Amino acid sequence: MFWGITPALDLQQEYLKHGDESAYELNFLVIGGSDGRHLLKTLSQAYRHTRRYMNIFVVDGCPELIARQILLTSLALEKTTRCGLLEKTRRWLEIYGNLLLRPPTSRYLIAKARQLVGMITNPEYMSCILPTVSIDQMKYRERDYLESLVNFWTTGNTNQFNACELWEHRIRHSLGVRYDNRAGVFDWDYHMRLKEIASQICFQEYKHFREHGVAFTWLETEVCRPNVTFAAGVCKCGDRYLHRGYLGDMVSSPYIAFGLDCDDKDMLKSSHGVNYKRATDVSERNVMRMLYELENRQAFDANALNLETEKNLGMVVLSQFDARISEAGPEVPLLLREDRNTYIDVDYGKVHFLSLSALDHYPHKPQFQGLFHGVFVGHNMLSRVKPSVWSMARDDAIVVMETRKYMVELKRDDVKAFGDQIQQAATAAQCEKITTFDPQADDFARFLIRRKSESTDIAV
């Protein structure tokens, strides 16, 4: 929950490897993407392909994930006239994967939440200011919950979401009697499971994440404000809000989506098994590349931008710090500019957020029959995908299902057993493997829909 457990994909590239390159419009369905990583990479790398219009439909398991994806997408689409590329990248990563934020990022989040409330309550305003994102097809009750949730985000400088206490409570609950020896638990999880499948992640940063919930750190920054976007089950009670605390991942870490590989291979150097760069640095470079390409529609060149690459922090030992939320005094609210020129003009694609019930209702709508050129299914939503859903995919559509390779808390037999569930789902969808896959070694299983007849019966 809150972030994906597989690397980001360019959905257009996945389709064009096996699909019709002459198509002038592509439609993709993302089920259980969790964090919008596929949206960002697909839109940012669109310039690398022949110009096509893309519609990306997103279904996720809970409104909290939809709200965060709207927030992260809107942040990615802001022009760098508001802040520099480096600051924008770090701000995005902080909100994406840090339980605690820097004060400037917290102030930005509060101001952004106020802006999003206006967009969610007025879809026409959203279509004018941020036309790349649409919530028109979500149910009104879900929009109402989104409004309540985003309103809660505006309380980010108060103590209504004590992130540090909530994180520690979850650690104590999950480890039980092993809590006092948690350093040994973190060491075991890293060296016995994670290092062999995600070696770019350094032990020091992984241990820091497990202990404090802060994944992305930089030498010149200090975090002390709660990331209220991690709150789940929010409801308003008088002047205050109630919530169910933090219910997200505490083991696999947010490094998986962007921190394992990089086009700049100098970022992946190591010596005697020790990385020069952290997964944090690799994530920063990858996200910076995508944000730059999204705005400029041209290749990213780290040398041309004179980026600081001399610091090799992979060997740095992070000192322990007393994670606590600082008492925020009165602050002048940050006001964000709200006009069409604030956002990048993405005239080649649109992201449509759908209700979870769309998986039950949309297969029966004629306009969705055979619509999608590609379908991505997250591990957490595989059980929710009924056979009728596949009627919305075209013949020869690409189907990508993520494995549980990076779920450190699972035993290897459990990871392998999930591969059998993927194969059963693919059989129900009348899919053929593109290549053989090993659920313990491969990030994804890829299939093509090969229907035996021209029509597919819709299960009722």
TrEMBL record:
Domain of life: Eukaryota
Limits of the Dynein assembly factor 3 C-terminal domain: 134-434
Transmembrane helix keyword on record: no
Pfam families: DUF4470 (PF14737), DUF4471 (PF14740)
Any one of the GO BP annotations: cell projection organization
Keyword Transmembrane helix: no
GO cellular component: dynein axonemal particle
Domain DUF4470: 2-101
Main localization (coarse): other
Compartment(s) of residence: Dynein axonemal particle
Keyword list, A-Z: Cilium biogenesis/degradation, Cytoplasm
UniProt record similarity statement: Belongs to the DNAAF3 family.
Name of the protein described by the UniProt record: Dynein assembly factor 3, axonemal
Organism field: Loxostege sticticalis (Beet webworm moth)
